[in-house]
Amino acid sequence: MTPDELSRALSAALTSAVADGSLDLPADAVPASVHVERPRQREHGDWATNVALQLAKKAGVAPRALAEELASRLGATPGVKAVDVAGPGFLNITLDAAAAGELARTIVETGAVYGRTDALADQTINLEYISANPTGPLHIGHTRWAALGDAMVRILRAAGADVTAEYYVNDAGAQMDRFGGSVLARIRGTEVPEGGYRGEYVAELGAKVLAEHPEIVDLPDDDALALARESGYRVQLAEIREVLESFGVHFDVWFSERSLHESGAVEQAVERLREQGHVDDREGAVWLRTTDFSDDKDRVLIRANGEPTYFAADAAYYLSKKDRGFPGKIYLLGADHHGYINRLKAISAAAGDDPERNIEILIGQLVSVEGAKLSKRAGNIVELRDLVEWIGADAVRYSLARYPADTPLELAGEEMLKQSNDNPVFYVQYAHSRTCAVDRNAAERQVRRHHDDGADAFDPALLDHPTEAALIGRLTEFPRIVAQAAELREPHRVARYLEALAADYHKWYGECRVLPYPDEPVEAVHRTRLWLNDAVRQVLANGLDLLGVSAPERM
RNA sequence: GCGCCUGUAGCUCAGUGGAUAGAGCGUCUGCCUCCGGAGCAGAAGGUCGGGGGUUCGAGUCCCUUCAGGCGCACCA
User: Fold this and answer.
1) Nearest nucleotide by C1' position to the A363 CA atom
2) From the C1' of B25, which residue's alpha carbon is nearest?
3) CATH code of domain A3-95
4) Residue numbers of motif 'HIGH' region (predicted)?
């Protein structure tokens, strides 16, 4: 019995109580699906609901009386073993072991699809994340968005959404000239210009550019600068793409800011917004009246000198997403960009969209390592590439994906990121590899999943140990956790779930033997438990995949 | 000054109005003669920053206050 089935049974109990007059409620006050949740305390049963507390006032009866009424009706439901009324009016529901345990077979049969839902099936989403400037390597801050963003893509898709993952390449503007100037300075051994990029990686880029284009030393300044800029840009962007791919992060679209300028999309965007009536010409510049939409000041689109601003490109980019058929646009931005929320939403509104529905801006807080902030100009850059080399992609991805985006994260460098047993990723992976070890040993001991006639050797009524009820209950939650993580845009919920599942598995493993002792015969309970072991392995693997973390068979 | 985010165990953090607030690390005590001890069982450790309010019920919602982070360009 799944929580959905239980929920429907509760609704039915309510409806029938209303129908025969024992409950005085308007028909529209009966919820279509009653919320059930797993109680914190095991002795409160498998599932609990507070529906009686919520409806008591509307029905004009005492919560406990309503709860009693529901309990007596629900108690007759097949698969329900007991219904108790507790506290102020909670319903605590215990399922038959057989009804609950059936889930193990369902999971095994559903396989990799278990956990997928159609919760967001009607959504087409463009998810933009990282979008770091191509003027330097990705550091740990970007790594957080990489781990989180990619997990979010996977989770949204698991919930049925149609998702395009996109990286916006800021390859236009004055910063690119400063970047080119910095590369050239390193090639020529001159002083890096004011406001330029000083990291050691610039020298490495310079060396690569020089190797490809030895003629650069003899070119006139302007030509040399352009060559250093373009060549350095190409090398740096290629490296970013390569590092991300090796990190298991894949983008469907790499969108160039420059292309917006070159195609005329920026000018067109200004005109389109003008037609919508939100553009003013003042003081020689062209403004978007973002204050119409709760921004605290208007924003310049075209400067007095005729140059478009970065904001104008943002507007053009937004319109591009809209034109390319994405009603939903999610931006995953760093906390240092939170001042952009209002103006981006203003673009959405000015474009005739609904900022409540068509644009969603998730602000991720910054990462610091042992108190040190990480910025491209500071000396203490921790690069994504180095992190992966140091502790492995799995540990990095998991460590960053298990926290919500809006918590400022302070990683205790060595301690937390090191490859050791302290890291929860190994706890979860270990549980998975343990299920595989059991599976290998089962084959050796000839514990089989099917009878000779091909029928399942699976008797769920035998899964009646308390740790089995806990484990099965946990497995039941998985699809809801995934759907919830997708709806709330919170991938960390999947990680936390996996940790709880791994804990339930380890406890079960300690209490219940899957395989018989060497001197004992193989019995029905062993075969049945093997199914449960399979189910756990499947869910651990499915969940780890949603986080882009491997599920090793041996460690 | 204005705005956003965050204050939960010694540390790093979970907890989308429910019952006795949780996990990992660290500290202490047990458990390998049998499926992987990267595990399990137990102990210690809390004014959920402070103060008001909303209600059957608040770590969670509202107001206020304190502390920390970040942001407030015709920069990108």
Assistant:
1) B5
2) A422
3) 3.30.1360.70
4) 132-142
